[in-house]
Write a structure and sequence with these properties.
mainly alpha; Arc Repressor Mutant, subunit A; 2 domains; about 220 residues; globular; Tetracycline Repressor, domain 2
């Protein structure tokens, strides 16, 4: 009886995970096709094959769906950045870690960044908390990298100051946000093909190149 109960719980957990993934994938596609503002919870639920009531069992709001994806992404990002080759400079490791971690998402960079422009989301405590978590995750990964750098690198201190790591992490997030703002501004252009995830990836490379060059 106990084994049957465990199996039943396992099935329920898998079903819940599948439903959550369906909602995220549906949101990704609809945000890309219609835009964040024009997509409703009802639209997302219908596309995922569930009711609005079911949607709200997983996410309190459309905005929370985006925030939840970012929070799920942070541990993946930390792992990828920490595992980048020791020869990569910090900003290069963050960029490459970001792109590698995004491949593990339902929809890749689509829902995490391109789907919901930062100016479309609220500016309340929830957004501030998620943004801080994103910055802290990058700082954690960079601290781990810098603490385990190769001992044969010359003129490197044994311990990188916390302020140094904090600046690197927050500058990295600023680069991501700047690329996204530029991307969503281009989305309003009256002519030309609609911007794509590949366009956003190119902007990310440009933004991190500014950081690596010292802003020159």
């Amino acid at each position: 009886m106990e084994e049957q109960s465990v199996q039943e719980m396992g099935r329920r957990d898998r079903k819940k995970a599948a439903t959550r993934g369906s909602l995220l994938r549906a949101a990704t596609q609809m945000f890309a096709e219609r835009g964040y503002q024009e997509t409703t919870v009802k639209d997302i639920a219908a596309a995922a094959g569930v009711t609005e009531r079911t949607f709200f069992r997983y996410f309190p709001s459309k905005e929370d769906l985006v925030f939840a994806e970012i929070l799920d992404f942070i541990p993946l990002l930390v792992k990828e950045i920490a595992g980048r080759p020791a020869s990569e400079p910090p900003y290069t490791a963050v960029l490459n870690g970001l792109l590698a971690a995004a491949e593990g998402l339902d929809g890749g960079l689509g829902i995490l960044f391109v789907g919901a422009p930062p100016r479309a989301l609220s500016t309340g405590a929830r957004r501030t908390s998620v943004l801080a978590g994103f910055e802290d995750g990058i700082a954690e990964a960079l601290a781990d990298r810098l603490a385990h750098r190769s001992p044969d690198e010359p003129d490197e201190p044994a311990r990188t100051p916390a302020l140094h790591i904090s600046v690197l992490a927050r500058a990295s997030v600023a680069a991501v946000r700047s690329a996204l703002i530029d991307f969503t501004t281009r989305d309003n252009a009256p002519t030309g093909p609609p911007p794509s995830v590949e366009d956003f990836t190119h902007l990310l490379h440009e933004a991190f190149a500014v950081l690596s060059s010292g802003g020159v």
